[in-house]
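Q: Convert this sequence to structure tokens.
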Amino acid sequence: MSKLILLLGNGFTIDLISKLGKSEVINTKNLFCKGDLVEWPDGQGKKGFLSYKNCRNLWNLGARPHMNERDAQEMIEDIISCANTLTRTMLDLSESENIYRSAYYELIAYLKHLFIMYNDLVLDSELMSEKINEWGWYRLINGANNSDLIDEINIITYNYDIFLERVLKLHNIGFNIVGLTDNDEKIKIFKPHGSISFCHQNSGEKSSYSIRKDPDMYEAKLTNFIVRYDKLDENYYIDAMIPPSGDSSRMTFQWAKEIRDEIETMVNHMTSEDKMVISGLSYWHVDRREIDDILVNTPKNVEISMVNPNPPKSLEAVISSIFDNYVLFSDSSSIGGLYE
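A:
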């Protein structure tokens, strides 16, 4: 018996959206390009979340719906790098003294509601369509779930969206969100960067919504959250999300540490009989330490695959230098029946 470990980044979501033919309306590469369409969540239904009015610090740093993908990525990386540094130095700066820290909290709030908007654009009927039945990732997970040769499926996903969870639920495939739900299921999902489904137990009136910019307002334990798949845009007191290219180990959020600890325990119990499939990781310099911690503690003779049409050269160099049994697939159609 062996375990199957999936290590998933944004490329997993991109692949799903492409399969559904919705890449024009859902863009998870350029995270600012749809910012003017995101509603400010005070119940009035007004669009323009990404604006000078609502995200002044992001706007002053240059965030615009019309900016190109590379500039958007570089801006996010700059914001995260500064936030990481400020966390390590423990500098006590007011909002007016540091635009990057304020932009960091605006980014968390904006991304949450961007992905809530994206979630609403995908109907349940689309996730139950024949396109999904033919999708390589669905076939891989469903096949492994039904296989007597795989006794556990551990999915580490850095994605905020809940498309994976919705697909599983709609196809009656049980799963457990580690740290938040306590189901005895074969599939266990770890979300170390948080999720739009992590909803704080306390919420306020939607009409009083504002972006909280005090670090203390982001500290909570996992027990302070519940998993929801509806009412995602309520005015929850704390958003459990770490922006892309962020390293959850550099931020002090207790909920993130608890999930990291669960991942560490799981990885430390891996054996040479286990399998790992990696897909869609950026491996930028600000987030690679988190990935490296998993890779260096994985047994060196496991069967490891990566699904990526354009894999990061540095990530592929690391994997091929550590693991002997490494295979690269250019797209998910090749992995459908891999572990049935």
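The two ends are 13 Å apart (CA to CA).
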